[in-house]
Q: What sequence folds into this?
């Protein structure tokens, strides 16, 4: 008999934000709960003068990380390995973040800001949900690289060998998780914020599967009416633009967008689900960031199983002089699982801790597949469709899943936080 | 854009209130230079649009004849169905979930 939380589960919602590291957003929580693997006084990065720069609680909502910190493959390689070139026996040391940021402006004082983090009180929504529900100590970007390839892992369980932002074409045999859910006769949707913001899932998904898209306004309506699909992926507003009646500020938290707008957006998603009682007790919401955005985190990204043989990025793509077999994860990012069935104040240990677990964005389609297979028999599909439905990349096959975090006991509504803009 | 709002919470489901501050109006700046992500998004959108046009263009030689057709010459149900089949094939394909090779 599965736990009541899993038995009740009817909807999975994923909200993917942009470009912030774990230490930067959630690291301050270590001061109030030492199970959370965040900021201590033990971590530093050398600056160009050789001085050790420690993490400091001086992060600002806006106008601080300008220029946008490098988070493309060679930049992240420098951040993780401190400038040691690829070669046998190379070990991650997380010593190149300040050096990497310095290279962008040759400004020593500015380079120190890559080590700044937010005091918990400045991010009441994200830290409030993290401490009320479950926070992952070991959720990593799928690739030590930028947005598009990392988001591909959330949709396909692979990036088909891509490590950058270039247009890439679906190569098969792996279907998007939306196609797989639809094959099973279930429902799935990507909700982008609005037309001017559009989506980041363009060339392969929007171009070929336009019917699975909706706007955030539709998401709110679907929550109200109890018509949320089995699986939903929510995208924040990616740019500042004029709306129908008011200014629409970017809510993705990508530097240099104002972080508080992202806090308000996260709350809107949480609140939309909570406000429908039936939906609230049958939904698991994962809030996760696509990658670290070049901002410091102290946990060394672990090795992982290599992706399919066909998906290897050559030296021309990595720009590091070496190939990449997708056998190492990217930098750690914030990830929080929200559900009334998650025990209060759950901390999921990371890979270097006792009973540690590792997750990355391939964990999203892997988990959705487990959810669908809970009460769907793929043998009801034709042989060709069954083969397509069950095809998973090596990375997705090996990815950790998180439905086991749903328990038998439901948190009472009265104990939960209600975030109100004042 | 988001005109819909969450359902009002009933008294029985009241939660503890945590205040969050309103961001300043100056945070909004639509003249902010677009970063690499947004520039890449525009490239991807144009690529997708070009592919959409290519898909439509495959049918252009048929469209010309069908648009120029004198509809008064369509007299029978069979003639209507022939015309409907050709036009529907053109209109439906660009937005359908294409089967992949």
A:
């Amino acid at each position: 008999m599965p736990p009541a939380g899993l038995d009740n589960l009817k909807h999975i919602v994923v909200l993917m934000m942009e470009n912030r590291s774990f230490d930067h957003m959630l690291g301050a929580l270590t001061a109030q709960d030492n199970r959370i693997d965040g900021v201590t006084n033990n971590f530093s990065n050398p600056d160009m003068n050789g001085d050790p720069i420690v993490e400091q609680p001086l992060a600002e909502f806006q106008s601080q990380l300008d220029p946008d910190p490098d988070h493309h493959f060679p930049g992240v390689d420098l951040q993780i390995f401190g400038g040691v070139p690829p070669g046998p026996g190379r070990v991650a040391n997380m010593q190149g973040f300040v050096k990497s940021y310095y290279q962008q402006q040759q400004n020593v004082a500015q380079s120190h800001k890559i080590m700044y983090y937010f005091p918990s009180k400045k991010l009441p929504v994200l830290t409030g949900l993290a401490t009320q529900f479950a926070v992952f100590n070991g959720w990593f970007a799928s690739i030590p690289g930028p947005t598009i390839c990392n988001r591909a892992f959330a949709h396909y369980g692979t990036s088909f060998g891509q490590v950058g932002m270039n247009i890439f074409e679906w190569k098969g045999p792996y279907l998007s998780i939306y196609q797989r859910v639809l094959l099973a006769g279930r429902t799935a949707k990507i909700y982008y914020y609005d037309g001017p913001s559009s989506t980041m899932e363009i060339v392969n998904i929007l171009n070929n599967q336009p019917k699975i898209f909706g706007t955030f306004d539709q998401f709110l309506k679907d929550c109200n009416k109890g018509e949320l699909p089995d699986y939903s992926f929510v995208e924040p507003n990616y740019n500042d633009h004029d709306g129908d009646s008011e200014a629409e500020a970017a809510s993705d938290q990508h530097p240099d967008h104002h972080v508080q707008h992202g806090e308000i957006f996260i709350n809107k998603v949480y609140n939309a689900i909570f406000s429908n009682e039936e939906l609230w007790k049958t939904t698991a919401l994962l809030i996760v960031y696509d990658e670290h955005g070049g901002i410091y985190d102290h946990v060394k990204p672990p090795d992982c199983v290599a992706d399919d043989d066909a998906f290897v990025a050559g030296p021309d793509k990595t720009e590091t002089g070496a190939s990449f077999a997708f056998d190492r994860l990217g930098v750690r990012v914030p990830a929080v699982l929200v559900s009334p069935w998650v025990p209060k104040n759950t901390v999921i240990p990371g890979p270097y801790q006792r009973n540690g677990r590792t997750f990355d964005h391939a964990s999203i389609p892997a988990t959705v597949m487990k959810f669908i297979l809970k009460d769907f028999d793929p043998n009801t599909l034709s042989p060709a469709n069954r083969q397509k439905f069950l095809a998973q990349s090596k990375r997705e096959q090996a990815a950790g899943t998180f439905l086991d975090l749903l328990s038998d006991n439901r948190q009472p509504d009265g104990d939960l936080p209600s975030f109100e803009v004042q | 854009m988001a005109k819909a709002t969450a359902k009002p919470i009933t008294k029985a489901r009241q939660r503890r209130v945590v205040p969050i501050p309103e961001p300043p109006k100056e945070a909004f700046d639509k003249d902010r230079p677009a970063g690499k992500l947004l520039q890449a998004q525009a490239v991807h959108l144009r690529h997708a649009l070009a592919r959409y046009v290519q898909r439509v263009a495959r049918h252009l030689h048929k469209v010309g004849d069908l648009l120029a057709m004198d509809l008064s010459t369509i007299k029978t149900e069979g003639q209507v169905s022939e015309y409907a089949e050709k036009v529907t094939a053109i209109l439906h394909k660009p937005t359908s979930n294409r089967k992949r090779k």
Observations:
- The beta strands of chain B are 16-20.
